[in-house]
Write a structure and sequence with these properties.
This protein is an alpha/beta fold. It has 11 helices and 34 strands. Helix 8 (about 255-265) packs parallel to helix 9.
Length: about 600
C-alpha cells in the first residue's frame, strides 16, 4: 500500500503525492502494437517529454467468448502497465466497457448481440450482467496496478464519451459503482467532446474534454462547468483515422503544435490521442455511420507523432521541443530507429479455392431462413464475431435477386460457384443469369467492421440479417459456413493436401500461398500487393489485416518479430483479382491526403 496520496483534483491544478502535477500524456494501445515493441514505443514516449501513458482496454479481445478470458501474451495488460512503471511512466486506464477507439463495436463483444432485445450501454439487465462478470475479472487483473497498491495507475476513466450516446441516465452511476465497488479507488474521470460534456458528466467524477482545435471556447466551457478543478484535454487529436475509398487524413505538424503549445500555456493537462496509433490487426477495425456506412482501414497510423511502424516524425521532434520546456532536467535520448528492409519479391507457389477450404471450417449450420453471424451455433455457441460467412441455397430460376438492405456489409454473389456480382449498401439488386434446373446460389458476406461510434450500436449484427428475395419470394433452405479464419482454421488449411499449383480463374475467391526466406535476424517491412483486389493477409498464421485496391492504404505493416529466420509462410485470401507476386517495401505509402484542419469541425465527430 502506498502511504502517499495519489492523483487529486481538489484545486485548479492536479496534485500527485501531495505535489503539483501536470499530466503530459499520450495514448498507445497495447493491442495495436506487437508486444516485442511495447518498450521501444514507451521509451520514445519518455524521450518526447511525456510522463503519462493512457490506454483503452478492449473487452471484445479479453472475453472473446462469454466467460472465456484472455490476458496473456499480446493481451497481457498487467505486463504492459508494469513495463510503463519500470520505464518511469504513470498510467491512466480507460477500461470502458465501451471504448470507441475505431475498434469493432467500440470494443464491446459481438456475442452480446445474440440477445434480440440487447440495449448496449444502458442498464438493460443482459448488458449489466455481462459487464459485471467482465469487471469482476478485469478488477482482479488491474487492482494490484493501482497507485494505492504501489502501482502506476493514477486515474481510471468511467466509460467513454457517454455524453454523445446518453440513452440512460442511470448508466454512468452504475459504471462508476462497478469500479468503486471492486476497490478501484483512484481518481475517476469522464471524457467527452464539447457537445457531449452536457450529458456525459457524473457527480464526484472529474470531467475532461476531447478536441482538436480550440474553437467554441471549449476550455472556458469546461472551466465554467467545474470551477476550481484542474482542466484536462483527455483526447487531443494529433491526427485522424482513415476509411476505405477516401483520402488519408493528415494534420500538419505546425498546426498541431501551435494548439498544443496554447493548451500548455494555459496550464491545462493534455493527453495526445494518439501518440502512437499502431495497427488494427486482423478484422478488428471499426466503421463510421453518420448516414453512410464507412469501414475504417487496417492502418491506425493516425498521422500520430510516432508512425505506424514506430518512426519518429517531424511532429514528434516539434512536440519534443515544446514538452522539454516543462521539464527541469534534460530529456532522455531518443532511441535508435527500428531497422527495416524491402525483402525480395515472393512468388505465389500454390493456391486453394474458397470452395475447397470449406471442409476445414466448423460444421456448417443448416437453417430454413438466413441466420446472422452472431447467432450462428459456432465458437461454443458464442456465434461468429468477424470475417466472412458463406450462405448457400438452391434456386431454379434466374431474374432478380434483391437484398432489401439485409446484407451486412458486402456480399459476393455466385451461381454454381461462378461470380455474378456484388451486393452492398448501395447495390441491393442483381439480375441473375438464366439457367436450367437446380443451381447453387452462394453469397459470401463480409463483416467489414462494426460501427464504433454513434447511436446505431444495437444494429450491428452482421452477415445476412433478414430475408433475401428472388423475384419477390424470400429464399429458404440455407447451408451456412463460418469463415472467421481464426488460427485453428488457418493451421488446418496449411496442413491440408488440397493445395494446387495450376492457377485457374475458378481459384478466386481463394487462398494464395507464397514463402518468404529471411536471412539473418528478421526486420520490419511492408507488404505491397499491386495487381491484387481485396482480401486479407496472413503471415505465419498472424492476420495482418485487410487490403483493398481502392485505398487510401496500399500496404500492410509486417513487424519483424512476427517473422522468423529462414522460411515464412504468407497467405493472401483474395476475393476479386490475384497476381503472381507479393512485394515488400521499406517505406509505406499512405495514398492521397486531406488536411483535417480544413475539414468542417462537425465532420470529425
Amino acid at each position: 500500500m502506498s502511504s502517499l496520496e495519489g492523483l487529486r483534483a481538489n484545486s485548479s491544478h492536479f496534485t500527485l503525492e501531495g505535489q503539483p502535477f501536470r499530466i503530459l500524456g499520450g495514448s498507445i494501445h497495447y493491442f495495436r502494437v506487437p508486444r516485442a515493441y511495447w518498450e521501444d514505443r514507451m521509451l520514445k514516449m519518455r524521450a518526447c517529454g511525456l510522463n503519462t501513458l493512457t490506454t483503452y482496454v478492449p473487452w471484445n479481445l479479453h472475453e472473446p467468448e462469454r466467460g472465456l478470458f484472455n490476458f496473456q501474451d499480446q493481451l497481457d495488460l498487467r505486463a504492459y502497465v508494469t513495463l510503463a512503471a519500470d520505464l518511469g511512466l504513470w498510467v491512466i486506464l480507460r477500461p470502458g466497457p465501451y471504448i470507441c477507439a475505431e475498434w469493432d463495436l467500440g470494443g464491446l463483444p459481438s456475442w452480446l448481440l445474440q440477445d434480440k432485445g440487447m440495449q448496449l450501454r444502458t442498464t438493460y439487465p443482459g448488458f449489466v450482467d455481462a459487464v459485471n462478470h467482465y469487471f469482476d475479472k478485469l478488477a482482479s487483473v488491474v487492482k494490484p496496478l493501482m497507485f494505492t497498491n504501489g502501482g502506476p495507475v493514477i486515474a481510471v476513466q468511467v466509460e467513454n464519451e457517454y455524453g454523445s450516446y446518453a440513452k440512460d441516465e442511470d448508466y454512468m452511476p452504475l459504471i462508476k459503482n462497478c469500479l468503486e465497488s471492486r476497490g478501484i479507488n483512484e481518481l475517476l474521470l469522464t471524457s467527452d467532446n464539447w457537445e457531449g460534456l452536457r450529458y456525459g458528466g457524473i457527480e464526484g467524477v472529474l470531467k475532461t474534454i476531447n478536441l482538436q482545435r480550440l474553437s467554441f471556447g471549449a476550455i472556458h466551457h469546461l472551466a465554467d462547468m467545474q470551477p476550481q478543478k484542474p482542466l484536462m484535454v483527455m483526447e487531443y487529436w494529433s491526427g485522424w483515422f482513415d476509411v476505405w475509398g477516401e483520402n488519408h487524413h493528415v494534420f500538419h505538424a505546425e498546426d498541431m503544435v501551435a494548439v498544443v503549445s496554447e493548451i500548455l500555456e494555459r496550464g491545462v493537462s493534455i493527453n495526445l490521442y494518439m501518440f502512437h496509433g499502431g495497427t488494427s490487426f486482423g478484422f478488428m477495425n471499426g466503421a463510421m455511420d453518420l448516414g453512410t456506412y464507412k469501414p475504417q482501414v487496417t492502418s491506425y497510423d493516425y498521422d500520430a507523432p510516432l508512425s505506424e511502424a514506430g518512426d519518429v516524425t517531424p511532429k514528434y521532434q516539434l512536440l519534443r521541443n515544446v514538452f522539454s520546456q516543462y521539464h527541469s532536467e534534460r530529456l532522455p535520448e531518443v532511441p535508435s530507429p527500428t531497422e527495416r528492409t524491402a525483402y525480395d519479391t515472393a512468388l505465389i507457389q500454390q493456391h486453394l479455392s474458397l470452395w475447397d477450404s470449406l471442409p476445414f471450417t466448423e460444421k456448417p449450420c443448416r437453417s430454413d431462413t438466413p441466420v446472422n453471424m452472431e447467432n450462428l451455433p459456432v465458437n461454443n455457441n458464442n456465434g461468429q464475431s468477424f470475417g466472412y460467412t458463406l450462405y448457400e441455397t438452391t434456386i431454379t430460376c434466374g431474374e432478380t435477386l434483391n437484398s432489401r438492405n439485409a446484407i451486412r456489409d458486402r456480399a459476393l454473389v455466385f451461381v454454381d460457384r461462378q461470380y455474378v456480382g456484388c451486393l452492398d449498401y448501395k447495390t441491393q439488386e442483381l439480375v441473375l443469369p438464366e439457367g436450367e434446373g437446380e443451381r447453387t446460389l452462394s453469397l459470401l458476406v463480409e463483416n467489414c467492421g462494426r460501427v464504433n461510434y454513434g447511436k446505431a450500436l444495437n444494429e450491428q449484427r452482421k452477415g445476412i440479417v433478414g430475408d433475401i428475395f428472388l423475384n419477390h419470394a424470400p429464399l429458404r433452405g440455407f447451408t451456412i459456413y463460418c469463415l472467421d479464419m481464426k488460427p485453428g482454421f488457418m493451421k488446418r488449411l496449411m496442413c491440408s493436401g488440397q493445395w494446387k499449383s495450376d492457377f485457374k480463374s475458378s481459384s478466386i475467391p481463394g487462398f494464395f500461398l507464397a514463402r518468404l526466406h529471411v536471412t539473418g535476424p528478421p526486420k520490419d517491412t511492408f507488404i505491397k500487393l499491386p495487381g491484387w483486389g481485396k482480401g486479407v493477409v496472413f503471415v505465419n498464421g498472424q492476420n495482418l489485416g485487410r487490403h483493398w485496391f481502392i485505398g487510401p492504404q496500399h500496404f500492410l505493416y509486417l513487424p519483424g518479430p512476427w517473422l522468423g529466420s529462414g522460411e515464412n509462410q504468407i497467405v493472401v485470401f483474395e476475393e476479386q483479382k490475384a497476381d503472381v507476386k507479393i512485394m515488400f517495401v521499406d517505406n509505406p505509402e499512405y495514398g492521397r491526403t486531406i488536411d483535417v484542419y480544413k475539414l468542417p469541425f462537425c465532420s470529425l465527430l
